[in-house]
Amino acid sequence: MLQPPVPALPASVDFQGKTVLVTGGNSGLGRAACLHYLQHNVSTLIFTVRRASEGESIRAELLALPELRSETKILVYELNLSSHSSVIAFASKLRAEVEDLHIALLNAGIFHLDWEVSPHTGNEMTFQVNYLSNAMLALLLFPLLRATAERTNPPTPSYLSIVASQKYSESRFIKSPIPETTPIFKACNDKEEFQPWSLYADSKLLVRLFVKELAKHVDPSTVIVNCMCPGMVKTNLARDLSFPLRVLGRIVQALMARSPDVGSRVLINAAGFAGKESHGEMLVVYQILPMIAWAESKEGEQMQVKLWRETVAEVKKDAPGTLDAALLH
Ligand SMILES: NC(=O)c1ccc[n+]([C@@H]2O[C@H](COP(=O)([O-])OP(=O)(O)OC[C@H]3O[C@@H](n4cnc5c(N)ncnc54)[C@H](OP(=O)(O)O)[C@@H]3O)[C@@H](O)[C@H]2O)c1
């Protein structure tokens, strides 16, 4: 099954004067997104890596691009999404060192089939990295994104965009919803109920519901909150799978997958030039993908509100005093 083509980025897309953050900028879609922002005149590109030495060598490569304008700034920060203290330290460093943030593209993520627990938080790793840390980061960066939009003349919304996946619709939590009395975080950390092939979809369902709920607390005239699915893209996302599964994945990718250059155009659309109609939505190939019916059902709505409460409580516990009052209305 072939994927539809992704049109080239419009020539009018121009990030001059903008400061853009891309998490997971060393590899795959994140790295390709960094190149697009640079090719479209971004003034300050900030990308994150897990290893400082790798970040510096990538920064040097980017600075050597022939098309780079001499005034372009490229900054690299360390961020490890398996640790709340790393997320909190990164967000406060960014807020202290960067005056403006027009676009936050939260891209970093993993695809695991094995049960693994973060040694830092005790949470299951895919839930921790793909959902909880990204949600925390979104909440911690929101004040800077909003303040930047309010300072911009003429008024222009900032973007808070999270890389999601259409696979969210395959989550086990849709087929067998988490009981009302069970916390979502507890369900995600229940090794007895763990289903390897649902792990990734579960984490992306949480991302999808979080974006839908966050959008309700945010005025899209200041910050557009959205997510996107780049389709199947040839990257190293499946690097932790067994050898036979990786070989199979490579064959499927060779037949069907987009290149990171093409797939990342979907990221740039969401986190760069999509309109206010994308607020709370998921974008695929420059279009909004309608929410699955379950998410609009009573069960879906309940899970969304419960997820929001648990996430906000986690941020209040681990990073007290950092949440923007506007988010809590
Ligand atoms: N490829 C696809 O077909 C596809 C489809 C739909 C959605 N996505 C989503 O696209 C995003 C990017 O994935 P990709 O396909 O480009 O894969 P990738 O090449 O493996 O990139 C993943 C990025 O996330 C970073 N990362 C992983 N664990 C991290 C952690 N604990 N802390 C901080 N950074 C971490 C990686 O850094 P290291 O190099 O240090 O591990 C890397 O930069 C993910 O959110 C993924 O779910 C991908």
UniProtKB/TrEMBL annotation:
The lineage of its organism: Eukaryota, Fungi, Dikarya, Basidiomycota, Agaricomycotina. InterPro entries: NAD(P)-bd_dom_sf, SDR_fam. This is NAD(P)-binding protein. Keywords: Oxidoreductase. PANTHER family: PHOSPHATIDYLINOSITOL-GLYCAN BIOSYNTHESIS CLASS F PROTEIN, PHOSPHATIDYLINOSITOL-GLYCAN BIOSYNTHESIS CLASS F PROTEIN-RELATED. GO terms for molecular function: oxidoreductase activity. It comes from the Eukaryota. Transmembrane segments: none annotated.
